[in-house]
Every structure is written in C-alpha cells, then in structure tokens.
C-alpha cells in the first residue's frame, strides 16, 4: 500500500511547498499583529462612530468564512476595482485580516489586564496618551499575551490549506497537483499531514516553554 | 509685598473680558480654587457644592468619614475626574474649562496637559510602574514629559531618592520593595516633576502599621521645605494636626467645618465633627 520510494521522491517538492506555507503564515501573522493592534485601539476610541464601526467590521469579518473572504479578495475585487492581486498577497491579506479580528480581542484582554492605577499614575505624571501607551501600557499588556499570540500563529499555519482554493501553491495544492499527475493520493496527503503535525507540534512546545518562562518571570 | 502684587494681579485679571470679576478678597492669589464644584456618578451626587481655596505653599489636610468624597475632590484637581458643575482654578487659570466667545466650555486635552504640569498626586496604592526599576520609575517622566536629558533626569532622581532614603535601591524592581519603600519611590517620582500642588490621597492607609512612620517622616520633611502646596487627604489625625496649616472637615459631599488644626481638633464646633473625632479617639487611632 504505502510506497516508500514514491514518498521519498515527492518529499522535496512538498518541502519546498512547506517553505512557502510557512512564509505565507509568517507574513499573514505580521499583518494580523499590526492590524489587530490598530483594531484594538480603534475599538477603544473615545470617538463613538469610530469604535462602533470598528466593532461592526470585527463582527463582520469574524462571522464570515475565511474561504469566502479570500475568494472575494482574489476573484471579486479585481472585477470590482480592476486591480488584481497575486494569489500570495491575497492569501496574506485574507488570512492576516481574518485573524487580526481575533488578535484584536487578545490585545484587548492584555490591555484591560493593566490596572487602572497605571493609567492614573501616567496622567498624574502628565504623560501624553501616546507616551502612556508606549512606555506604560503596552510594555505591561504585551508580555502576558505572547503565548496566546503564539497559539494563534499555529492556528493560522493550519488554516493555510484554504489558500489552495485561490491557487496559492502551498503544501495542499502541491500535493493535489502531485495526485492529479500520479493518481496516487495516499502518500502525498499523508505526508502533508505529517509535515503540518511536525511543525505545529514543535511550535506548540516552544510556546509552552515561553509561557512557563513568562509565568516564572511574573511570579518573581 | 506679596499681597500687594496679588491685588494688582487680581485687578488685572478682572479686566479680562469673559472672566468673572470680584474674584477673591483674601489678598493673595490662591494656587487652587474650587468654586461651586459638584460631582455626580450617575444618580449619586458625591460632592454637593465645594468652595475651597488653597494658597501657594499652604498645607491643607482634608479629613472626614470614608465615602464623603475626599478622594474625588483630589482626583478632580489631578484631572482624573471631571467636575459635574462648577470650576476649578489652578494658579489663576481655569483647569477644566476655557473661555470661548465669553462662554465657559470644556477644555481640550491640550489645555489639560498644560495645566496638569502644576499638579502631582500620590496614590493610596502607589501605582509604581512594575516593569521599570526604581531609578527608571523616577527618571521616565522627567525625560519624556519635561524633556530633560538622561544625565539631568538621573541627577534629579538620584538626589530625590536620596532624600526619601532609597539611594541604595536604584536598581531594584517595585515588586521587591516593601510598601513603605514603594510609597517613598512614588513620592520621589511625583516630586521630581516639581508641581506647585501635590495631592496626597491616604498615602499610608495601604501600609502595614510599622511602615507608616517612615512615609510620614518623608512627607513631614517635604512639608517643611515649604514651597509646594499640599492637599493631604488623611486619617492620620496627629499627623494632620502637626503639619497642616488648615484642616478641612468634609462629610457627605460638603465642607462642614474648616480652620486651623487647633480650631478643628481642640475646639470642634459642629456636632458632626465632634462625633467624628470622638469615634476616632475611641478607636485609639
Ligand atoms: N468612579 C466612580 N463611580 C461611581 N461611584 C464612585 C466612583 N468614585 C467614587 N464613587 C463614590 O463616591 C463616593 C465618594 O467616594 P470617595 O471620593 O472615594 O470618598 P472618600 O475618599 O472620602 O472615601 C463613594 O460613595 C464612592 O462609592
Ligand atoms: Mg478615599
């Protein structure tokens, strides 16, 4: 049933697709980190229309499937605007934007974990809003959420097969192409699963270690 | 001499269009002036019309039962709480409002930022920055807010930390300090900003009894230096008696009685103050 030689032959192709998959994930994660932070700020804004619109956008993105969103970016947007986005960028933006709404929630919990007294002390010392964020709030809000952000990175990595639907040549599409040429499905898809598992598992071990280290630091 | 200048300035000020005339008749120009200030949280009115003046350098103790609105009074001066009605003036200028076309309007952040540089506050729970060591807790604001160089800020901070007895703790983090040490760092952190008025909000009530003394000692020294006005919200009656120029007794959102420490503690007039002090003495505090 399982053909070792065949598996060995297709491995290089899958490994190079793995590189692409990791790359897409990292780029999308950076997008999610930045947009997530902006969404978290905007949702907290004193300016009511901004915070309402932001919350609405967050709800909308969260309650529509990622697949529909990347289809929209890749297939519909060019029709609407005349600008077509390469599959890689559509994937990065789609995945990043989708998860930015979850990360904004993570930031929010981190920000709300900073005691009110810290804001008040900053005001009493006459820090501006921006200075308060930069030197008082974020340095305290971010470290505790780093493990959670790490977990989202892993979740995003495992979502990448969706991007094969917009012709992004990540692992899943590579496997599919192999299958369509050789008509052997068992080895390619099994290998894809194993590769996902190895990377995700290593990453989750790293996140756990990070979490332990941070708990130790906070405990002291 | 000082008084004469004060009167002239008053006369000048009352000519400014849009400013109310006949402001003060005490002669000197107050550093802090509450006029008809009320504060409500939802339906709950916690301050019910406060008129209060503090002179430059004056040490005013604020006493009263808990829940009477003392903290709220101080927080409004620190711009942490906005008055519902009335005005507060700081050094002759409105704190929460500006005049626009002869009308009083809520001031913007820029105005508040400028005004805040005159005020500092020490909190019950210290509110030190846990991610910075002692030295950085005290140098950050002078550098970022006042724009001092690293050297200037450190010089100022080290000398202030020496004054509060913590010169040997510069590299420690707040979590490794005792409550008394934390509060002394907080005092140094506020003092290096050199405000004209400092609000002390029950700064010893979160401390273990044996640590109260070291903090009061530091405050006593600051008070003796004289130039900074101090609003001391406190339950330490002996301390208030010792260092205050004037004591304010408030209850249920109003100033019930005020006077010199002798008048308040030795000759209380109102029943409320008498029973308040009675209760304090019988509790042996
Ligand atoms: N942010 C707030 N929201 C609602 N109620 C408040 C708030 N701050 C204070 N209060 C209420 O206002 C009253 C006065 O509080 P406070 O100024 O802290 O009194 P004191 O310092 O004299 O004990 C209390 O009843 C308190 O519960
Ligand atoms: Mg209080």
From TrEMBL, chain A:
Q: What's the source species for this entry?
A: Paenibacillus solani
Query: Where does it mainly reside?
Result: membrane
For this chain, one GO molecular function annotation is: transmembrane transporter activity
**Keyword Transport (UniProt):** yes
* NCBIfam families named among the record's database cross-references: ectoine_ehuD, HEQRo_perm_3TM
Tell me the compartments it is located in: Cell membrane
Domain (ABC transmembrane type-1) spans 18-207
What is this protein called in UniProt? Amino acid ABC transporter permease
Q: Which InterPro entries match?
A: AA_ABC_transptr_permease_3TM, ArtM/GltK/GlnP/TcyL/YhdX-like, Ectoine_EhuD, MetI-like, MetI-like_sf
Keyword Transmembrane recorded: yes
* Pfam families found in the cross-reference section: BPD_transp_1 (PF00528)
